[in-house]
Structure formats: structure tokens, C-alpha cells
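User: Before I run my own analysis I want an independent prediction to cross-check against. Here's the chain; please return only the C-alpha cells and, at the end, one sentence I can use as a sanity check.
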Amino acid sequence: MYESRIIVPQWLSFSTDSGYRWNAEAARRANVGLRFWVYVTTVPLTLLTLAIVAAWWTPNEVRNWWLAAGAAVLVDRVMTFAYFIPTMLTLMNNQTISGSEAVAKATQWINLVARYPVLTLIHILPALFFLVLGPLQFSQGFRDRHLQWHRRNGRVLLVSGTVVGVSALVMSFGMPSIGGVNQAAATTLFALFFLFALAKAFRHIRRREIRLHREWMIRAFSIGLAVATIRPIVGIFFATSPFTGLTPYEFFGTAFWIGFVLHLTAAEVWIQSTRPLLPSPKSSDRHQESVRHL
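Assistant: C-alpha cells:
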């Protein structure tokens, strides 16, 4: 948003006679790499490090979820610093790129963001609630100590998750995707499964089937968290593209499939490995009391 709204318009000039023209001197003078590093990499990386340290000392089950989420985002931050920023600086200082090529890349970047700002926010803001509040629902200590908050948090999680899933479907059909049909197919399929998992989780909790509710919420949360893994996968494809010859149109969809499948597989492994350790769904009167009034 920062580059597309503030910086890139400084690199482009528009006239009704000639259309957009590229200002290479402004691009070289902007020093976006330094500003990008300071605001988008350093601060989140510092906060992420503090979160991982705090999660490390958390003694209950939520610790594993915070560490997994932190590790995935940490990989994304490292890829940003190690690859994307140097690439940005190279493009800014590249004397051989043509004006028409630069204009095409910059206008495509701006149009994808500017044409769909409302839909993007509708998708991103509930997703933030879903990913932040999600780990709390898997904490046995949080359920035992704060039953009312557990129920309220669960309702917010289901509503925000539903908005995320529906908006993802709309974006799959209504917004142009870099990876074309392959990417749209991945987001459509897993958005449908994400909504199905939420519906199953809601049905099971209404029937006080605690174990089944937990398992379907794990599946839903793992799919929602997949975006944190897809980004570094895309980064790996970008980094290896000089050797593979693959273009973003060719590898973006593949990256989405890999990320979603990895997360769903990890969720199933976790469910199967922890299932024997869980008590019978009817053996915890206190937990059933926590969902009686849902």
C-alpha cells in the first residue's frame, strides 16, 4: 500500500496525449529500499522476535501454535530482507529496463491494489482477528480460567472466519490473480473447505461434541494460517527463477497449492498424533459447561 499509493505515483507521470511515462530518475532517487526495510521489516521482525520469546515461556498448549505461527512469519521476514529488498534495489538502479516495461509493471501493481481496496480490507481485517484470536481457542488453560471469554472469542472467530472464507471466494472469481486459473482454483477449493470446516466445527460444538469440534477448528485454522507459508514459498520461487526460468504466472498457483496442502497435511498429522491423548468427549463436565450456552 505504501509503495503503490505514495511512491510509485511519483515515478509515473500521466498526460491525456501520451498516457503514462516512466521517471527513471525519480525511481533511483526514492530510496524505497531503505524505507521499506525500516518500516516493513525491522519493526515487525523485532515484534515477532519478542512474540516468539514470550511464546517460548508459555507453559500450555497455545505455546506450540504461537511458535508455529511465529516461525512461518519469521521465514517470510527473512526472505523479504534476503531477496525482495535487494531485488527492489537492483530494479531501481537498473539502467537497461525500458520505459514501457517499467510503466507496464508499475501500472499493473497500482491497478490491482486500487481497483479492489474495499474487498481487500474486508478480507484482511477479519483475517487478522482470526489469526490473532485463533491460538487462544486451543489453550486448555484459557478455557479453564476464562470460560465466558472462551465462548465469546469462539463466536468472534467463527464470524470473522466466515467473512474471510466468503471474501476469498469473491476475490477468486472477481479479482485478477497473478497465477491465473491455477491460483484461482487453489484459493476457491480451499476457501470452500475452510468454510466447510467452520460449519462442521460450529455444528459439533452446538451438539457438545468437543473432540470433533476441536479437530475441525484445527483444520480451519491451519488453512487460514497457510498464507504465512505461501509467501516464503513464493519467495523461493522468485529466488530460483533465474535458474528455473519460471515466471510468476507459472509458479504463483503452484505456491498456493503447496502451502495449502502442507498446512492441511500438518493439521491431520497433529490431529492423529494428539487424538489418543485427549479425554473422552463426555468425560469433562467442566468443558461441556463452557459451551452449554453457545
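Sanity check: Strands lie at 12-15, 19-22.
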